[in-house]
Amino acid sequence: MAISNRLAIWLSTLLILAPLAAAQKYIVTDLGEFAGGAVSQGQSINTIGQIAGYARFSNYNAHGFIWTASTGLVDLGAFPPASDFSVAQGINSFGEVVGYSLHSGAIEQRGVLWTRGTMHSLGTLPGGTTSQANAINDLGQITGYANGTKTGAAVHAVLWGRNGVIQDIGALSGGYSQGDAINIQGEVIGYSITQDAKSHPIYWNKSAGLRALPYLSATDTRGWGLAINNLGQIAGGSDNNAVLWENDKAHTAVNLGILSGGWSTAYGINDQGVVVGASGSAAFIWTQAQGIVDLNTLIDSNSGWTLGMATAINNPGQITGEGNYNGAQHAFLLTPVSQ
């Protein structure tokens, strides 16, 4: 009987330690900075490891960039001449990049598409003055926000088709809304601020239209969807907690936990349901098996890096974001180490 008990305890211990021993490790690559600048941040990563983001110059103006292992940091440019400011927000598998740039002497902002080395303005809703593109899928559909004559002063989440036609996808209670991510099915997620000043995570598809996602708790008043995978799982936040909304009919909200600082937010999710984000001053990764883990514990402790935010993860498991590298804020690429 004693032997049986010891065997049961030994097996239980192995089951507990097995996931810990299997924790994925990463190699950190510094994406660098523009000449004279000191700040860069990775915003999105595609399936082949190309990264879109932004970097600042010595005058603090920023330009969007695309980074590849072969070319390094490539400046995508901005609208001339006065503003000289742009940010790249999303990238698809074909290397098409979307974001925004200030226009007409920094008076107006426009969503933009960079493709084959050329920047194209995406325009606004009819009669509008502002727009921003946040994400693009592999069909060339783009989401973000814009305003127009019919929205009055309000900004609404929008969808640009491959043909460039812009569609207003609405807002909750006539308030503000924006689209933050889009998957291959054309499902859009983001958030909407209602007239009672509450921020609601939102979900939109062509057949059902726009609706609010559930808060994590009935007492929550702030929420946002920030990433969606091709299976319909959604990552974001509800009040102070990182959240995964499952792809069931109810979009069940799952609390991903907090590392430190009293808060966490999820920024990226891949098709395996692996989530990345930030908690306090630390970048995190979350998996069903491991829960929430500080990414700083999964890199070489002598690397010179403190990873502050993980913004996106691709299906091969590569991660981008920003951190402190020897005193400077730099974009990074994390590459899984074979085990």
Overview features:
339 residues, mainly beta, Methylamine Dehydrogenase, Chain H, four-stranded antiparallel sheet, 28 strands, disordered N terminus
Sheet of most strands: 4 strands, antiparallel
**Assigned CATH superfamily:** Peptidase/esterase 'gauge' domain
User: Which CATH class applies here?
Assistant: Mainly Beta
Query: Treating each run of at least 4 consecutive H or I residues as one helix, how many helices?
Result: 1
What is the succession of H and E elements? HEEEEEEEEEEEEEEEEEEEEEEEEEEEE
Q: Would you write up a description of this structure?
A:
The protein is mostly beta strands and 339 residues long. It has a single domain (25-336), classed as Methylamine Dehydrogenase, Chain H (7 Propeller), CATH 2.130.10. The chain contains 1 helix and 28 strands. The protein has one helix at residues 2-21, and strands at 26-30, 40-45, 51-56, 62-68, 72-77, 86-91, 97-103, 108-115, 118-121, 131-136, 142-146, 156-160, 166-168, 176-182, 188-193, 199-205, 209-212, 223-228, 234-238, 241-245, 253-255, 264-269, 275-279, 282-287, 291-294, 305-313, 319-325, 328-336. A 4-stranded antiparallel β-sheet has the order 1-28-27-26, with no helix packed on it. Strands 2-3-4-5 form a 4-stranded antiparallel β-sheet, with no helix packed on it. Strands 6-7-8-9 form a 4-stranded antiparallel β-sheet, with no helix packed on it. Strand 10 (131-136) and strand 11 form a beta hairpin.
